Amino acid sequence: MFGYITANLTELSQPEKDRYGEIYCGICRAMGKEASQLSRLGLRYDMAFLALTLLSLYEPREDRRAGRCLTHPLRARPYTRSEVITYTADMNIALAYYKCLDDWQDDKKHTARLLANAMKPYAAQIETRYPRQCGTLKRCLEALNALEAEKCTNPDIPAGLFGELMGELFVWKEDIWADTLREMGVSLGRFIYLMDAVMDAPEDQKKGSYNPTLLLETQPDWEQVFSLTMARCTAFYEKLPLVQDKALLDNILYSGVWVQYRQKHRKEGGSQDGSL
Predict the structure, then answer these.
(1) 77 by DSSP, 3-state: which?
(2) How many C-beta atoms surround the C-beta of residue 129 within 10 A?
């Protein structure tokens, strides 16, 4: 369900690409350190946006290092360490853990069971440190499973739950920025869920998989729905006093989130210039 909140790399400068990669590698290494090497398989670029947002807002101390890893064994790659990076890694582990449990319970995917078992002890520690975030995450995923089981026909209901889940992950601290971050995350989560459902609809229809957009009698103008949802997200985003990495964050929210949608439309013979 993740994979849409990423940068449009064609529009980034080389320093911005380097920064983006350092944050992603930092989260990946933190996941391996906090949990296990297997947990790193659950990393998504979407979480780099969360880290960049919190780093820009709170400006905590950052420690830039370089090193080799299993994915890049030949050349040392730079990465960033920070308490925000660790928090983002923890949230990624918790999300991946509960998602793997769902995949095992629903589809009996053995890879999901393997990953869940590897992350279980660390997920329990994360839940102790962040009961608010993990409690919301667990409750929302369970509610989403229930909606799927009953074949909910209203996409807005599960999208709202996924938005609530994302909203809590964005709130690192309960401070003056909590409400703005939460509302921003809610809209972003709704966007992710609806975009994923629409993008997956053809494949889900072939497989007979649950997809609430396929159960609608009349299809709305999804492009307009996406645009309005992101407009609400960016309205809250622009209220945050962000300076560090602002250009990179702008790239992700105003351009990167549309990349996969535009690519699909080009393949299907839609807009050739990728404009909305």
Answers:
(1) strand
(2) 11
